[in-house]
Design a protein that fits this description.
binds zinc ion, globular, single chain, alpha+beta, 8-stranded mixed β-sheet, 16 helices, 808 residues
Length: 808
């Protein structure tokens, strides 16, 4: 139920806490016992009861209306199914009983008080596990007789070319890394058969985030491709690893002769982006259509404003009641010195001109304070303007006379840019756009100033549509996928970035209070960071990397999904067939996935993907990044590939996390290129290379949709340093989850899931008594099970093995 479109293994995992948080914003005991706004009339809330989120199964819309009429607390989830409507109610046991008595049918409880407790327990377990992991590692490493442990472990050693450079990137974990600040020295050979050290050395440094040591990392240019690298830790322990090639050049070009590309010739404003996809849909009516998303933005528009005066205590802020383009810009205000002494404050309105006659003393000096002028304006011209003192000042300063000053919305876009709430459009591409095909979503310009990512989406849409008729591989994609491309999620901010304030990041909605930065001088700081306003692991859930300040660059908004831009993306992601997504940003040449947030001070991460999901992410990543590299040999580095919170920073409430945790979508994020608005030649290259990557994502999705290949797995047994024990690991032929038992029982989806050894470290090592029976099966992302085993506990054809050392 919580993951209707997710890969089977995740759907079957026990207690998906992420799913639980997806269906309710926050159920605290306090909220649960607070009076409901319109509780059923016969009884109030029962003190001390806690609430659960429960499905209510309804015949149809009339049933939903009846449910709403009871005043029960519903969250925003209403799902229309074949059988009717499923709503989610936040109810205590006595409220649930009243609903049942009133004839409503309750379904599953989706989130219970114990889930909340479990989430807290999970958090504590995560912290404890980090600490224990480091302690174990350090303890094992301190045993000088142990044959299978070293205090240093090489996680990745990647060789790649980028431009004309050859680069070696190394990541390693050292048992003392939390407490000691040493760098590590990496020695390398100079190719097969050469001596260790002959290729030179490089140092790698600690990667510490939020006070937690993660691993050492570093990259250096080399003159030859090494085969092996070696690290000798400061305590004398040694680790050796084989060097892998990162993003090798593929043998065949993905683009056959005649493949058409290169369709963008300049940056495009949101108005132009939308016009372009409308043209495309009109030109290819059999393959594409335009979808207007359900929520219009708040509009590229503002009230006309002015701030009169210079010293804060004597400043007067004035806003038009009308939008600037609807008359506000015609209004002017004057603070006039009446001349003779003993005048009183008065206001005259002539047409749209407001004249404030200031008060004077007997000598003719002005005596009106800012607060007095504000009061006079609001009473004398309150049908035209609203006045207020500056940023919460009591306004006790005497104002200075001011000449006639026009109020202005200060918006410079030509009239061809609409000032109305703006529709947001996506182009839907595919031969069968009926929801039966695997869906892929690409979306750009959550951040207004990032001008290249929208071009990547346009270039991709054009390549898909213009190559369909003559390129078999493109035809395969459009015949088998349902592709949604939204080139600009934030058109208001986008227009503002093009015409008014190029470094605009957020939308244009002013949530600042009149006592804050709501005045004319604050206008470039307003807005919500659209990519911090989503529902999972958000600021409102206590996660890091977003702000509650209305002027911050990462302002999360007043509440989750408060913004129409975010509601639109939530709507897109809730298309039930969408399984893959790409969130296009700039800049930095990153390629990332979840988790994208953690909570401080302990760096408690949102749940990490399973080992199988992680390996699926890495596998698809190498295809996508290889395609990117084909354009001009630009390599997205291993250090910039991985979970957002590992390689970049915590970004509470970002969209990638919502798509992954709430909807089970394989959600990636591009950070395209080197800057927000590079020179055109560079922007053009970035567009071409990341369009290669986005097309390759479509191919990943297509392969997933047609994947019928069953995974295969092997069990490896190795000596342990503990007497009587052996070390067991699993290997799989493709990204796949392994479920196993050690008690002789048949494995099911409830059995233990083979896990990761740690951040970026691959599969864990299980230490078990020699002779232990191991039963297991593997299942891939598309749900194919090894040997066609039915993992219900009754089948016999699971894999069987014994933890004994191979005879040597
Ligand atoms: Zn961005």
């Amino acid at each position: 139920m919580p993951y209707p479109q997710s890969p089977r293994w995740r759907r079957r995992l026990p207690v998906p806490l992420a799913a639980a948080t997806a269906v309710v914003l926050l159920v605290s005991p306090a909220a649960a016992t607070a009076p409901q706004p319109a509780a059923p009339a016969d009884a109030g809330p029962v003190a001390g009861e806690q609430a659960s989120v429960v499905e209510v199964l309804l015949d149809g819309t009339a049933g939903l209306d009846a449910l709403v009429a009871t005043g029960v607390d519903l969250d925003h989830h209403v799902e229309r199914t074949e059988d009717g409507v499923v709503a989610h109610a936040v109810v205590t046991p006595s409220e649930a009983a009243r609903l049942t008595a009133a004839g409503f049918t309750l379904g599953d409880a989706l989130y219970r008080p114990e889930d909340s407790r479990a989430r807290i327990a999970e958090r504590e377990a995560t912290i404890a596990a980090h600490v224990a992991e480091n302690r174990e590692f350090a303890a094992a490493a301190s045993d000088p007789t142990a044959p299978d442990v070293s205090d240093v472990k090489i996680i990745r050693a990647d060789y790649y070319t980028s431009g004309t450079n050859q680069i070696l990137s190394v990541e390693a974990k050292w048992a003392q890394g939390q407490t000691a600040s040493n760098t590590l020295t990496v020695e390398r050979d100079s190719g097969p058969g050469t001596a260790m050290g002959s290729g030179g050395t490089q140092t790698i440094s600690r990667f510490v985030d939020a006070g937690v040591y993660l691993y050492h990392r570093g990259a250096a240019t080399v003159t030859a491709r090494p085969e092996y690298v070696r690290i000798t830790s400061p305590t004398g322990d040694v680790a050796v690893a084989k060097v892998q090639e990162w993003l090798p050049t593929p043998e065949t070009s993905p683009e056959p002769p005649g493949y058409q590309k290169d369709f963008v010739t300049s940056y495009l404003t949101p108005t132009e982006l939308y016009a372009r996809i409308h043209q495309l849909a009109a030109e290819f009516p059999d393959l594409a259509e335009i979808v207007e998303l359900p929520y219009k933005t708040n509009g590229y528009r503002r009230h006309a404003q002015a701030v009169l005066g210079t010293a804060n205590a004597s400043r007067v802020a004035v806003d038009s009641l009308a939008w600037g383009h609807e008359g506000g810009n015609d209004i002017s205000v004057e603070l006039a010195n009446p001349g003779p002494g003993n005048a009183t404050t008065g206001v005259t309105v002539t047409g749209s001109h407001i004249r404030v006659n200031l008060a004077t003393d007997a000598a003719g000096a002005v005596t009106s304070t800012a607060a007095q002028v504000v009061a006079a304006l609001n009473s004398g011209a309150g049908s035209l303007v609203r006045a207020y003192t500056y940023r919460g000042s009591p306004g006790t300063g005497v104002v200075a006379p001011a000449p006639r000053t026009s109020l202005t919305d200060d918006l410079s876009a030509p009239a061809s840019v609409s000032r109305d709430p703006h529709p947001v459009y996506a182009i839907r591409i595919g031969k069968h756009r009926d929801g039966t095909k695997t869906g892929v979503l690409a979306y750009a310009q959550e951040h207004a100033r990032e001008w290249v990512p929208p071009l990547v989406t346009i270039e991709t849409a054009e390549r898909l549509l213009r190559n369909y008729a003559h390129d078999g591989r493109t035809k395969q994609l459009l015949n088998n996928l349902d592709i949604w491309i939204a080139p600009s999620i934030n058109p208001d901010g986008g227009h503002y970035s093009f015409y008014d304030f190029n470094s605009q990041r957020k939308n244009m909605t002013n949530h600042c209070p009149l006592t804050g930065a709501a005045d004319f001088l604050g206008r470039d700081s307003w807005g919500v960071d659209v990519n911090r306003n989503y529902t999972e692991y958000s600021l409102f859930d206590g996660y890091s990397g977003a702000s509650s300040s209305c002027t911050s660059g990462t302002y999360a908004g007043p509440s989750e999904l408060s913004e129409p831009e975010d509601k639109n993306l939530d709507w897109l992601a809730s298309r039930p067939n969408i399984k893959f997504s790409m969130n296009l940003h700039s800049s930095g040449n990153y390629f990332m996935w979840s988790p994208g947030a953690y909570a401080l001070p302990d760096r408690t991460s949102a749940p990490r993907p399973s080992l199988a999901d992680e390996s699926f992410f890495w596998g698809a990543s190498s295809r996508i990044l290889t395609a990117i590299k084909q354009h001009r040999n630009m390599a997205v580095t291993p250090a910039r590939t991985g979970p957002i919170s590992d390689v970049l920073y915590s970004a509470a409430g970002n969209s990638g996390d919502m798509l992954w945790y709430k909807y089970g979508i394989y959600a990636w994020n591009f950070e395209v290129g080197t800057s927000f608005q590079p020179q055109w030649n560079e922007a053009h290259d970035e567009t071409m290379e990341f369009a290669n990557g986005l097309v390759e994502l479509m191919r990943v999705a297509r392969d997933y949709a047609s994947d019928k290949k069953r995974p295969e797995s092997t069990l490896t047994v190795a000596p342990s340093s503990t007497p009587g024990m052996v070390n067991v690991t699993f290997d799989v032929s493709e990204p796949a989850a392994v479920f196993y038992t050690l008690d002789g029982g048949a494995p099911t989806y409830e059995s233990t899931l083979y896990g990761s050894a740690g951040v970026r470290e691959g599969g864990e090592t299980l230490t078990v008594p020699a002779g232990t029976r191991v039963n297991w099966f593997s299942v891939d992302a598309a749900g194919n099970v090894e040997n066609n085993y039915q993992p219900d506990g009754n089948g016999k054809n699971y894999r069987k093995g014994q933890a004994v050392l191979p005879i040597s």
